[in-house]
Design goal:
Elements: E1 6-8, H1 23-28, H2 33-42, E2 50-52, H3 54-84, H4 95-116, H5 120-141, H6 143-146, H7 151-174, H8 180-190, H9 225-234, H10 249-256, H11 266-289, H12 294-314
Parallel strand pairs: 1-2
């Protein structure tokens, strides 16, 4: 299925200039692959262009995964373990619970429709909406207070917990196409049976009363601002300083002193590009002297700028830095 373009920060991905993060780069960050899968599908350019942003990457991880989905599942499982000895309590539904389940079923049905129509991004948002509903249910009922009350209140705490644990099971199934490792982690903590791995129009509680869950563990880690700044700097450009083979800076410095076998020496590249820049500069000057059409001049100027960027990269310079020496003269003089 065709999509639109995915850009990088305020520009475009460029393998040659080292701008952007690619497959091997993602692996080298140490961030789990499921987090990458989540974010890239969350911003998938299905109907219009979108952009990868390190700040937004961290924000979505910390808000949607850590504070929303991960928080809900961890709260549900930890409360079950601590207050019900890890056994799923019986569920007695109230009118409020029925309303909640209606909302969950609406998201579930929308999820299946979205995936059938290849609206992958919207399907992911359906999952996050379900976990958000679960968090709201826990917050509204405050089972940590109910568990300290009378028998009726304790039973209500059990119903909220049982429903939360089964919602967690549902989420684990819906996550499989998006975050398979995370899905498996949740099902392992739930000790969920394989029979739960089906999707139907209405939620089914596959974890019956008395079912024993496993050991709850946090699913996600926070991405700190310092990490974001480090990653943004690392993948901002200058491919000559950031090779894609995963080698260390020291190894890259050592290997940079030796041209690869069969490749032209760096000075040859520089000389060739310098000649091309000079030739293209003459083309631009000729067109301007002939007062050619503006569109034609602009097109040749863009070619010249691209050649200058390639020359800067060949020299190991930052192509975005202003060049010294030659440039526009003061007082409006021509080049």
């Amino acid at each position: 299925m065709a999509t639109e373009y995915l850009n990088y920060e305020d520009g475009k991905f460029s393998k040659s200039r080292g701008v952007g993060v690619f497959g091997n780069d993602a692996r080298n960050t140490g961030i789990p692959s499921d987090i990458w899968r989540f974010y890239l599908l969350y911003i998938r350019p299905e109907s219009q262009d979108s952009a990868f942003s390190w700040a937004d990457f961290a924000l979505k991880n910390n808000s949607e995964l850590l504070n929303n989905l991960g928080n809900f599942i961890n709260r549900a499982l930890v409360f079950c373990e601590r207050n019900f000895h890890g056994a799923v309590p019986a569920i007695t539904l109230t009118a409020e619970d029925e309303e909640l389940l209606a909302l969950v079923n609406r998201e579930l049905q929308s999820y299946t429709q979205n995936l059938s129509k290849c609206r992958v991004r919207d399907g992911l948002r359906n999952i996050l909406s379900i976990s958000r509903l679960g968090n709201q249910m826990i917050q509204a009922n405050m089972p940590w207070k109910l568990i300290k009350g009378n028998a009726e209140e304790k039973a209500r705490a059990g119903s909220v917990t049982g429903l939360s644990v089964n919602l967690s099971c549902l989420i684990s199934v819906l996550l499989q196409p998006y975050m398979p490792t995370t899905s498996a982690m949740i099902q392992d903590q739930l000790q969920a049976p394989d029979t739960c791995n089906v999707i139907i129009d209405n939620m089914v509680c596959f974890l019956a009363p008395g079912h024993k869950i496993g050991k709850p563990k946090p699913l996600f880690d926070k991405i700190e601002d310092s990490k974001v700044a480090e990653l943004r700097k690392t993948y901002a450009g200058k491919q000559v300083l950031r090779q894609t083979d995963g080698s260390t800076p020291a190894a890259r410095t050592k290997s940079a002193s030796k041209p690869e076998s069969g490749s032209p020496p760096m000075t040859g590249n520089v000389d060739e590009l310098t000649a091309m820049v000079t030739k293209q500069g003459d083309v631009v000057r000729q067109l301007k002297s002939e007062k050619a059409e503006r569109l034609k001049i602009d097109a040749e100027v863009q070619k010249l700028l691209q050649l200058k960027k390639q020359l800067a990269l060949a020299k190991g310079e930052d192509p975005s830095a202003p060049s010294g020496g030659k440039g526009k003269k003061k007082k409006g003089g021509k080049k």
